[in-house]
Amino acid sequence: MDFYDLVNFCTYFSPIVVLGGVGIGIYYFKRLDILRKIVTFYLLAMFAVDVLSRIIGRIYENNLFFIPIWGFLELFIFSLLYYFLGIKDTAGKKISLIIIIAAAFLFTIWEINKVCNAPIEEFQSYSKVISTLLLVLLSLGFFLENILKKKDISSDLFLLNSGILIYYSLTLIIFLPIDFLIQDNTGLKFYFWFANIIFMLVFYIFLILSIWRNGKTQE
Asked: Do residues 163 and 203 lie in contact, with contact meaning Cβ atoms separated by under 8 Å?
């Protein structure tokens, strides 16, 4: 088994882990707070994207248009999480968030059309990078606002937001050279994809544990 086979093998852990998380979320769903319900929907969306992208990839041998879809879904779902973490309390922030989501949606549609009508060799997609950057800013903004207002953050929320911040900061580093990740022929890109898979699996497990702990405390 070479490194490419290892990377390809590891990709199959992702839907298994996420499906397990969805199952736990459904089992505890009525007991979960709104944040963990949103996290459960996030895992469900990631499972759907994972499975559909594999199917489309097998049929058409090109599933790159799922990258902007993936990025938009992450931004949309976690924007809901930060909406309930404080954005809903300020009219200006609510309007700004709506504008950002609307702009991201339109950009995603434009980029999907662009990706579908261009050869793989000319692939360029920046919506995933932009959506990831926005999530980093949202998580940083949550910390900064609470620090400036001298609000106490529960250890539970501190841990959840820290996990989101760390994961998307690492993801941003990986996806900045996204053209290279798609077009590289040297094999170096597989080390980036392997790191991305590991980060993703750790993040999924982190979210699943958050759902499980929240569900258990409500029993």
From this structure: yes
- Distance, in Å, from the CA atom of 193 to the CA atom of 8, rounded to the nearest integer, reads 10
* Cα–Cα distances in angstroms (integers) from residue 125 to residues 77, 110, 115, 209, in the given order: 20, 11, 8, 32
pLDDT digits (tens, 9 = 90+) for 90-107: 888 889 989 999 999 998
Q: Are 47 and 18 in contact (CB under 8 A)?
A: yes
Contacts of 92 (CB under 8 A, 6+ apart): none
Are 211 and 22 in contact, with CB atoms under 8 Å apart?
A: no
Residue with tokens 């949103």: 38
Q: Please name which of 63, 30, 64, 24 lies closest in space to residue 44, comparing C-alpha atoms.
A: 24
Q: How far apart are CA 40 and CA 214, in angstroms?
A: 12
Q: For the chain, how long is the longest CA-to-CA vector?
A: 56
